[in-house]
## 1
Amino acid sequence: MKSNYTRTIHFLCEDKSLRHPLVEQIERQMGIEIPYLEPAELMLALQRNKHRILMIDHHSYSQLHSQVRNLPLANKVFETIIINVARRLTTDEILSFGHLKGLFYEQDTIEDIAKGCCEIINGENWLPRKIMAQLLYHYRTVVESQSTPATVNLTTREIHILRSLMTGASNSQIAEEQFISEFTVKSHLYQIFKKLCVKNRVQATAWAKQHLLS
């Protein structure tokens, strides 16, 4: 029974018959085995052991995520460690990793990765400061948007502009889509911010994502 409560790291990959050089280095440095797990085995892993931490190579994340779409990695049962990250990630990308416990860049040393993984096994988080700052900013925005009443008297035009904000459109792009001037867009945005009790586009977008249907 004890093994059911032991936190272990498993490497999620497309083909577990292929060894991953970086994972092998992490195993040697930590002095533990990191079993390989394929997407098809993920549901079985969910049933058998609810304390597995999934390690994922960021280079293969998109392909893996498409294979486990019916079992989202956002499932809180699975904690995740992302390795081999080559660039700065957007907040949406970070959130897609689900219960993210650790993130390591390509330039991180094996010693630092192994140390971080040991801390994660012991229940700690190991995230870069920039990632923590992004998440903190996101959740602050969510909290602020939740304090806004869901029932707001928005015009049809304002709703269309909010939907454009959700896609990341600029003022000029919104003006082109709505066949209005940029000055008019700014005027509409001012009214939207006022009605939603928000201060900027990010907060307005967060409100729209929560309250407007796609």
## 2
Amino acid sequence: MSVAPEEDALLLVQLTDSHLFGERDGRLLGLPTLDSLREVVGLVLAQQPRVDLLLATGDLSQDGSAQSYRYLREQHARIAAPARWCAGNHDVGEVMRGAASADMLQGVTDLGGWRIILLDSAVPGSVSGHLPDERLAWLDRVLREAGERHCLVALHHHPVAMGSQWLDGIGLHNGDALMALLERHEQVRVLLWGHVHQAFDQVRNGTRLLASPSTGVQFTPHSEDFQVSPQAPGYRWLRLHADGRVETAVSRLAEGAFPVDLQGGDY
């Protein structure tokens, strides 16, 4: 689905959970993750005439190798927009930071009437996420300093229940603290995350809560145990209006373009 440019609107693209390997032909559950990312970026280029900011919300790499992040930069560079990265549980923070430019890792980006904030929810050695008190205090401060700007907050781990027993055990462990903080800031319009490899869209207290498909393997919604979905890889676009309105949708590759091993076990 393409989105026409508009003078007072910003167009953001989220590419999440790419799970790249140091080997060009690395596969996750049978799916070649670099090839699928390349095709998803091609879909963005075909559908979006202008992108203002690219958000990569964690699990950028599967093996934490420097080469996997170089592959990621090559693919992101095909989109003529600045990129912002945050870490996921599969990322190796030191290696990721070494592969990224300084601007890719900045936590606050002001564009027009919007402030875009990226949070690092990764905990070394843990699949689940956590936001330490000092990070929550930083978030509270940058939200207060946003003034009249509308705000979008993005991170890797999901802070609310997804209705999936296995996934909800590996989300953001202090999600309630994050949600309580955001409720004190009326200018927060969007909370966006990755990690769950599926689309999610709710509104809570005036804030749009959004999760997005992976550029590779997808997970089955509302599953009790780990389960892979045959849905195609994709991305999310977000159109942010000057008056705070948000339009968003998910776009996917053609079904069957990248089949996965549905019995492949854990990821």
